[in-house]
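quick one before i forget lol
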Amino acid sequence: MSFKLATWNINSVRLREPIVLKLLREEGPDILCLQECKSLVELIPRQGFLDLGYSHIVARGQKGYNGVAIISKIPLEDVGGLDLANLGHARHVAATLPSGVTIHNHYVPAGGDFPDREKNEKFGQKLDYLTELRDLFLAQKPKRSILVGDLNIAPREDDVWDHKKLLKVVSHTPIEVQHFRDVMAAGDWIDVTRQDIPHGSLYSWWSYRAKDWDTADKGRRLDHVWATADIAQSAHSSSVLRRVRGWDKPSDHAPVFASFDI
């Protein structure tokens, strides 16, 4: 079974439905995982997806915040969603393909603006979310699985525009990076994007605050595609579709792609 997968923090699926459909028409991924849908499940627009052949969807939603969805041409079996750190947020959904491969779609908490859990509750929630995820993988090693999403951490020095300047900035602090690596190690996950693109600066997010984001290029790689070690070698053709960040009324994230032959 071969398929092309994309993950994208869309920052409101209802507001940005036109560019979601544009991506599907132009790039044709078999599976699209969305984060920050900001919609109740029943209000996610579906007709446009159906018209393009995306007849399968599993999602978790809430009004105005968070929300995750997996939209697919391939049949999906909904296998649940986790409420990590007891936040009561719609941040995870999982689905299994006919091949038996399970896709996990996560939207990890951003963590607020100050990297100190004593002074910033949101930062503590982020660390707790990752700790619980690590513990789940330690208790039961995932097999034949893909994990995607906006993980809100740029782990490598070349995943940010300036490593030294961002060491005290949420998303690249040493404690976050360590939590990120602990989660990966606990599940024997492989970073598919960096398996395919091992060297060089690579970003998937550029702030709305930058008037000319493309020229300034102060980006971070916050969006990820992982695979368990047993299927990671089947992954190929990874890319970040940077130009999408410049589309009309864009998300501040660009979609990340990978293909699998499983």
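fyi The mean pLDDT is 98.
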